Structures are given as structure tokens and as C-alpha cells.
From TrEMBL:
It comes from the Bacteria. Pfam families: STAS (PF01740). Residues 31-113 form the STAS domain. Belongs to the anti-sigma-factor antagonist family. CDD domains: STAS_anti-anti-sigma_factors. GO terms for molecular function: anti-sigma factor antagonist activity. It comes from Mongoliibacter ruber. This is Anti-sigma factor antagonist.
Amino acid sequence: MKLTYQLQKEEIAYFLHIQGDLIGDEVGPKLVEMVSDAVNDGVKTFVVDLSEVRYISSSGIGLLITMLTKMRNVDGEVYLTSPSEHVKKLLIITKLNNIFTVFDSVEEAKKKIK
């Protein structure tokens, strides 16, 4: 399933809604570029909504880590929200749930990061 995304810029954070399979293909560099743009705009918080992501490959995991590294290099943070059961298991198996802050919903993330 092809990956599509929407970026919503708000004052408190950039919100990225991803749909499809996160496999780090041709969309990967665009997502990293969005984080770089956020950093350039002085935004320190990036929220990635995974509610409609079915599958994440090892390249997709690498992509999320790259995004996180870019934000943390400027004292920023990437938060993940609404992972499916499959994605949640993957985050636990890879121990990424210890590296990323994961919220159950975008609304919960918005309340916590204000």
C-alpha cells in the first residue's frame, strides 16, 4: 500500500499524518526534509500520527530514528501517536517504545505537549 501523508503546521507543533506502509521508499527523504524544515522554522515538536500505518519495515524504522535524531539535535522531540496493534508490537520488539514517547491519540499528545 502506497504511503501518503499530510502535514499540519500548528503553533505548538507540526503534525504529520501517515497512511499506508512506512517502508522508507521515495517518500522517506521527503519526510526527513519536513523535519529539517520544522527545525529551520524553529519548531521543536513533531508529532507523527501512525493510526493508518499498516506496516513499518526496517527502513521505515530507520526513517523514524533519523527524524528523531534531527529533532533531538536541536533539543526538540518527535512523538508517535495512535500506533496499530501491529506497529505497537514492532515498537516493543525493537525497544523503540523506550526511545520514542508514544501517545494513544493525537488529542492526548496535544494535551501533554502544550
